[in-house]
Design brief:
mainly beta, elongated
């Protein structure tokens, strides 16, 4: 819940995020949001997962494979 005028945005915003593991080992996130005033909403995800388990060390040796026609890489 983000209360009315938190960070300068009008309306009390209530958000629900559901995480689901799919049969093909993907994570699907579903967002639901309601507000009591007209406001700007741009929901995103900044979660990080340690694939070796919590407290098991660094994630710096993990790799990711992205199936996409295009991608943007920040340096």
């Amino acid at each position: 819940t983000s209360v009315d005028m938190e960070e300068g945005f009008p309306g009390t915003l209530k958000v629900k995020v559901t995480y689901m593991a799919t049969e093909d080992n993907a994570i699907k996130m579903s967002y639901e949001a309601t507000t009591d005033k007209t406001t700007v909403v741009n929901l995103t995800n900044h979660a990080f997962f340690n694939l070796n388990g919590e407290g098991s060390g660094t994630v710096l040796n993990h790799s990711v494979q992205i199936y996409a026609d295009k991608y943007w890489r920040a340096y």
